[in-house]
From TrEMBL:
Native organism: Mycoplana rhizolycopersici
Organism phylogeny: Bacteria, Pseudomonadati, Pseudomonadota, Alphaproteobacteria, Hyphomicrobiales
Domain ABC transporter span(s) in chain numbering: 2-233
GO terms assigned for molecular function: ATP binding
Entry protein name: ABC transporter ATP-binding protein
Family listed: Belongs to the ABC transporter superfamily.
Length: 241
C-alpha cells in the first residue's frame, strides 16, 4: 500500500528527516512512535505533500507520489487527519462534512455521511450544531469523520488521543481498530505508546529524524530500546526486532 525508501525532507533549508524506510501493507495498522521533535509529524506531512522530499521516494498503491501536491495525494485515497483536529470551528458538523467531500468518482455524499454517522452517532445528533461547541472528543470524532469523507485507502492519524480523557481515548482506539477491519490501512502517530502498540501490527520508532527501531508491535513493546529512546540513553544503531 505504502512504500517509502531513503526519504529525507524538511522545511526550507531545515532538514528534519534523513534516510527513512517504511512500509504499510493492506489493512495493516502501522504505528510511528518517538519523543517530541523526532520527526513524526514531518513524516506524515512529507507523505501527504505538505513537506517536500529532498531525496528518496514515496510509492502509494504502486504509484510514485514523491513531490505530488496534497490535493493530488488525497484524491488517490491517501488521507491525512492532522494533529490538533483542525476542524472548521465556525461551521456546523454537517458543513464540515460537506467541505470535506471532494466529489470524485465513488460513493455519494449522502452515502459517505451515513457511514460517518453510523460510526459516530453523536455527530448525527449534533449535525446542525457548531463544531466549536462540541467537546474535545467529539471534535476528534468529527476530524476523523471528515477524513473518511475522502474515502481513504490509507488513513494517516496524527496524535488522535491528544488532550482527551482516558474513556474517550479508548473509544477512539476502538474506532481505529474498526476502520482497519473495513479494509482501510492506518498509519498512526501516537503519544500513548501502550495503546498504540496494543492495536498496531508493526511499529517504527523515530528519533532525531531517523528510524532507530522497527519490528512487530508486540515485540517492540517488550524491547528495551523503546524506553532508551524516550529517556535519551539510546545508541545510534538501527535495530530490527
Amino acid at each position: 500500500m505504502l512504500k517509502i525508501a531513503g526519504l529525507s525532507s524538511g522545511y526550507g533549508r531545515v532538514s528534519v528527516l534523513e534516510g527513512i524506510d517504511l512500509e504499510v501493507d493492506n489493512q495493516e495498522i502501522v504505528v510511528i512512535l518517538g519523543p517530541n521533535g523526532a520527526g513524526k509529524t514531518t513524516l506524515l506531512n512529507s507523505i501527504s505533500g505538505v513537506a517536500r522530499a529532498t531525496t528518496g521516494s514515496i510509492l502509494f498503491d504502486g504509484k510514485d507520489i514523491t513531490g505530488a501536491k496534497p490535493e493530488q495525494v488525497v484524491r488517490m485515497g491517501l488521507v491525512h487527519c492532522p494533529e490538533g483536529r483542525r476542524i472548521f470551528q465556525r461551521l456546523t458538523v454537517e458543513e464540515n462534512l460537506v467541505a470535506a467531500h471532494i466529489g470524485r468518482a465513488g460513493k455519494s455524499f449522502e452515502a459517505l455521511r451515513s457511514d460517518v454517522f453510523d460510526l459516530f452517532p453523536v455527530l448525527k445528533e449534533r449535525r446542525n450544531g457548531m463544531a466549536s461547541r462540541m467537546s474535545g472528543g467529539q471534535q476528534q470524532m468529527l476530524a476523523i469523520g471528515r477524513a473518511l469523507m475522502a474515502e481513504p485507502k490509507l488513513l494517516m492519524l496524527d496524535e488522535p488521543s491528544l488532550g482527551l480523557a482516558p474513556k474517550i481515548i479508548h473509544q477512539i482506539f476502538r474506532i481505529i481498530l474498526d476502520l482497519s477491519q473495513t479494509g482501510i490501512s492506518i498509519l498512526l502517530v501516537e503519544q500513548n505508546v501502550q495503546l498504540a502498540l496494543e492495536c498496531g501490527d508493526y511499529a517504527y520508532l523515530l528519533n532525531t529524524g531517523r528510524v532507530r527501531v522497527h519490528g512487530p508491535a508486540q515485540e517492540i513493546a517488550q524491547h528495551s530500546a523503546l524506553s532508551d529512546h524516550y529517556l535519551g540513553s539510546a545508541t545510534e544503531e538501527v535495530l530490527h526486532v
